[in-house]
Design goal:
It comes from Populus alba (White poplar). With 337 residues, the protein is mainly β. The chain has helices at 50-64, 93-99, 213-221, 227-230, 330-336; strands spanning 4-8, 14-20, 23-29, 71-76, 104-107, 119-123, 159-164, 173-180, 183-190, 198-204, 232-239, 243-252, 259-265, 267-268, 277-282, 296-304, 309-311, 315-317.
Amino acid sequence: MSKLYLTLLLCISFCSVFKTGDRKHLFIGLDSTMSAGVRGPTNLFGHPTDQLLAQIDSQLSQWDSEKGKPITKISFGHFPLSFSALSHSQKSLKNVFLKHSISAYLCGHLHTRFGKNLKRHHQSNENFLSSHEFFQLNMHQKPSESARNCSSQAPPLKEFWEWEMGDWRKSRAMRIMAVDRGHVSYLGIDFKSGTKKTFVLPTFPLDSRFMLTSSFHQMYECQHMVPFSFETIRCIVFSISPIMSVVARIYDTRPGSPHLIMETTMTKFVRDVSRGDIYAAAWNYKAFEDPSPDRFWLQIEVTDAMGRSTLSELRPFSVNGPSAKISWTWKEFFVMG
């Protein structure tokens, strides 16, 4: 694993670029609160200005111009997009994010009052009915049916995830996000349910419920993915105790109930950083190609020196791109749909 380099840039509210090997990671923070005025109820919504949107657009355009250089773009701000007003010229943060195909927008504000499953997949598609501009019933928007374009000059597919992060102050909730060779994933942690000695975040294969479906599918079908990024199962482990073993298990649900079809020991990467350890295991990813997004499920077990066992969430995965549906509760739909 390569060293991590950080470059700070002058932009909007906060902007930084990390470099790992030949890939860059751009993080843009934004502040859409009103510059002056009373507090509630006007602070219930974010008010991005045309100037702010122009600055974000300009900053992202700078990195879009570097063709052939892989970059992952993440933005973060306080307000969910459903709580962000249009600018004076009727422009929105959502349109800017779609234009530049960021991977994810991280937000807060709602403090888990409406649930801990506040996520929404946004995608631009000219064939959608106008109602999709205002609401969607499923957390994961229906993927585009447009023809595959594998040209190196083809424009990127316009989609991104919005992830509400909960809050630490009252809910004691947090998320750990990982960017693994361009693949973005996260782990939700709830300390109100008790403290844990070990956390495990699978970083590949991606959870088929929360990945960028159209982009991932095109990348796989057009063979634009970096081969070695598919050739191993990977995870990050955080623990207060030395780790003795990490085992990955894959289950097949086709017969109706999950049955174990693969079990393999994962090996630790030797790195020169102290936060979290990366484990990997080789596998034949092509053996898991399937039109169903939730036929195969992954779970990772970590055992520490005290003999304590920690299991990751059993989750579906898809190596070739189909997405598994996941629905909101009515409260979640009310604020995110």
